[in-house]
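Dock adenosine-5'-monophosphate-propyl ester; give full complex structure.
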Amino acid sequence: MVATNWVTERDKNGCFWPTEAMKKKANVSDPKIYEKAAKDPEKFWAEKAKEGIEWSEPFKTVYEWKPPHYKWFLGGKINASYNCLDRHVKAGKGKKAAIIWVPEPANEKAITITYEELLEKVQKFANALKGLGVKKGDRVGIYLPMIPEVQVAMLACARLGAIHSVCFSAFSGESLKARLLDSTARVLVTSDGYYRRGAPINLKNNADIAVEGTSVTSVVVVKRAGIEVSMKPGKDYWFHELMDKASKECKPEPVDSEHMLFTLYTSGTTGKPKGIVHETGGYMTQAYWSCKWTFDLHDDDIFWCTADVGWVTGHTYNCYGPLSVGATMLFFEGAPDFPDKDRWWQVVAENKVTVFYTAPTAIRMFALWGDQYPKKHNLESIRLLGTVGEPIDEEAWMWYFKTIGGGRCPIVDTWWQTETGALLISELPGIGPFIPTVAGRPFPGVTAEIVDDQCKAVGKGEGGFLILKTPFPPAMLRTIYNDDEKYVSTYFTEYGPKIYFTGDGARWFDDKNIRVTGRVDDVMKVAGHRLSTGEVENAVASHPKVSECAVVPRPHEIKNEVPIAFVVLKGAVASDALKAELMDHVKKQIGPTAKPEEIYFVSELPKTRSGKIMRRMLKSLLTNKPLGDTTTLQNPHAVDHLKQATGYKG
Ligand code: PRX
């Protein structure tokens, strides 16, 4: 059988378009939806909220706007787990696969969990949490690897109206502790460990470090890797034992639309991660519609989003989004190169994945490894590809398009952030166009613009800062947990309380489509992961031998950016051993992604007269760009040494 072509040839403007077959298949293919939504975005979102989501009580007020705060769907009552599970079972889809879980060890078989089974597990675990004292509004920490218990735990919280806070499992115990302290979690759900490239990794040890001195009273431990772990009686509970005892029925608690669904910590421009707050009704509305329209999910699709559940992409597209539309999603525990570099493609072929969503870093890595790995497998089941997390370059886009998509599939390049809750800028597969390196059009009902530093809109082909205008899309953050001031100062000081500043630079490709060029602040994107320079600086500086340190990103061929540290020592002698020690220290403090790629030991950091470290100059040193006027520095003599240390050729 010849595989269907879903895109046309590239036109003279560099665009690919959906074929008639794609338009016919797509859930939406009429470009008029953009104009319709733009005419009255509030009405548009109200209609979509009613059409896509089941409410226990209808909302009365669509949008409330008290700059810079906003609320959606007031008066409405909703339960997220009901929307992801019960309603599909009621509609007769109980036997449909909700999750196909593929474990890492090749000798373990994939497990299919139907909607009916997932609902039962969620109800049981919700009862188990209740048994541990969890009530509506309580915070629950989740520190789990890519195993289906993570969706069970998230949805069980949502069922009770408890607030989950997931921490990426590769983060350190210290990182988890900071999150547990800030969110004052009552319970932590974790596992004994997990598999990574064949080796079992102990997670419970990290969890033990993390809960010490926090408000956590109970720790639930999923047995995954069969690792010997210590269990404190009266505090640590095995997940399977609680599940065995729990009753099968737990009614979903209807909560206000604006009730907090989760908080997720992310890196800002300072050293301390901030708890992004997402509410229920608005978040669910966009999780649903982005899956329907952008990922174009149908009943027969198998959707695989490779993101870890510890990031927002994992929340929205490995849990709430696909489940809210009643889709089948694939969830993979392992690494892309274990046991070999074709593992992902083997998983696609074996499970006939139809919609595949990953990050440019992964694409560049696969391109470097070579075509022979994907070529080993039949990838013709794929009909739609997606990317997220960082700008994608033309070469990687074309490789993805040709080698993975066989030149037949659209690519939706989705721009969004932890803060926005769901994707905001991307083409729609039934409408197009698909343009390499261009994310595309704001989703219907979303107003994004590119402005200069005076907030004046820039024209076609010009670059500037990406902003959002009110009404802010329903899934966007409402505040920062415990720190509303920070919410205001981070997003609403640049252009005032009525304009959301994204922190990204962007450029118009034409009068409709946007190319996002990357962060313009102190946030780095390292292999798709978000880190602040300040966070890494704090970790380096916490080493007893370090006097002062500055961290800046350096462009990287595969990972987009990597952190580079400039370190002034407290009298210690610089050596390769100390370099390795510092790198390891950061890894332990934050996690492996934060480990500096290089450390330069220097005698001084370049500083302004007011004592501020000139990070811009350090960046220029690393990229061989002009350094600008160095005479205005407090310590211009430091520059020669820095040039030498970095091998500057500028
Ligand atoms: O710089 C943008 C980049 O990722 C940032 C948000 O990171 P995070 O909160 O970790 O969420 C990532 C996943 C939603 C943005 O400010 N980014 C995300 N998607 C894209 C992107 N940059 C360019 N193109 C994208 N498609």
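Observed: The chain has a mean pLDDT of 95.
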